[in-house]
Amino acid sequence: MDILAMPVLVWGAYALRYSDFAPPIKDPWILLAAPAITIPILFVSGFYKSVVRYLGAEVAWSVLYAIGASMLALAATSYMAQAIEVPRSVFVIWGALALLYLAGSRFLVRRFLLSVLGSAYDRQPVAIFGAGDAGAQLVAGLRSSAEFFPALVVDDSPSKQGALIAGVPVVDRAGLEKAARRERVSAVLLAVPSVSRARKMEIVRWLETLNVRVQTVPTFNDMASGRARLEELRDVAIEDLLGRDPVPPQQDILHRCISGKQVLVTGAGGSIGSELCRQIMALEPTRLVLFEQSEFSLYAIERELKDAAETEELPVQVVAELGSVVNRDHIERLCRHYGIDTVYHAAAYKHVPIVEENPVAGVRNNILGTLATAQGAEAAGVQHFILVSTDKAVRPTNIMGATKRFAELVLQGMAEKSEKTIFTMVRFGNVLGSSGSVVPLFREQILKGGPVTVTHPDVIRYFMTIPEASQLVIQAGAMGKGGEVFVLDMGEPVRILDLATTMIHLMGLTVQDDGNPDGDIAIAFTGLRPGEKLYEELLIGECSVHTEHEMIMQASEESLDWDELQQALTRFREALDAWDGDLIQELLCLYVSGFQPGTSGDKAPETLQTRVLPGMEKS
Questions:
Q1: Which of 392, 448, 533, 618 is catalytic?
Q2: Which end of the chain is more exposed for a tag (fewer CB within 10 A), N or C?
């Protein structure tokens, strides 16, 4: 088409020069010279390498350079051929026409491909919140998407409102509200990666009032690495809203028990254990031993960490060891063989209803397993032993929490008599996204159309992200001198009903209740499960002291002397041999202070303040 168009453009230049549709062209050779000179120059300049649908600024520069060079080349050819009857203005007019034709035709075709053909795919209109770099890149990417097209860009900055980003208007919140009311947008995509969690919560709180789906897109790093495509939109992670703005870890504390040392993690394939391993890998121990009783979980975390070590060129030897924490001799042999310096004990049965129905297994794994692991580590000369505990160990109402509290008592007793191993406990609440967490359960229920099951309308819980919890566990363990119970600052607890309601709203749906019988998703109250509490606490007593880290406190709590502890352990073993669940519960009531099986802890402390989630101010 360009070859055919060039002679026509020469005729057009003559016609404009002479103001005549039949201009006098006395040197017709120029009609052939124009394509013969221009097309090769355009090719060399890279003009024909651009894909029309993705044209950018580089095309404008290449065509500008090519036409400029062609004008000079045609003028020089005319001069050398002594074609004195070719007016000099013809070259200038031809250059302007060629520039207009080459650039204009491409951008018209691009517009046709994006608009006309794009509508054939029934693309969904979306709004993008954020007119920064991320928003601009998202607009550019979605313009060529077959599934979505950007209808609006929303930004709170007055200086950006009224502007155009790749032809898409930037509006204020009122503009988005009007578009949502008229159903001109099907979803809102957040493109504000650098804002704080508090700011993101404020944005989402307002977006919830529009009854549109709020989503995010994969990061550009994920798309560049091939892990995700632009079209793979995901709902806003509730984890991004519940968590606080991350507190930078204190690097000297992080490295204290890990860098250059031999580290072992029990329960390495679990939610907390696997994240502990990832954090430990980044701190470059000499060797990281993964201990896990689930073969598949061990395989998965070993493969992930070895791939990470190879990709990031980390000088860490990753070793996978299959076994159970109740085998003391196995633990001791492992620690001796690898010269283990630090043990993170994250292996535990933690699902409250399951442990409630299987008290024998809970005591064997959580209590005797902790004892066996601690004794094996001590016998092998391990320097630091850190137990990952739970807020359910505080005034427990279930078997799981009581066994974890007794595991703390075991370590407190061992810390009193040990001269070479520092035993430390770290206690925290629910972690978002862990196995058994309500967040993935609610998400699955919403995707299936509901109902979302909540045990009780007044249940509240503390929440923390897995990476933050793991970093704080590492730092707390490094501060131990022997026998301390460290408590992580979990912030303010969240009402689970508010959490469920927020997740429904973020997916662009409404709650079906008495006030809205035509809503999309119902919330069903199933009643408290056996041993479940309405609220959780982090401290047994009222005393806690601050540590060198602002997010970590040290609790001052009672313990058992070693002789009493040995007597209790003997009685637990007898109950296990007899397979007597009732006796196990009686023993836990006897030795675990505050254990009240079957109660719900239905009165929260007066000082307990729950965090208000987006859109829940009036609930």
A1: 392
A2: N
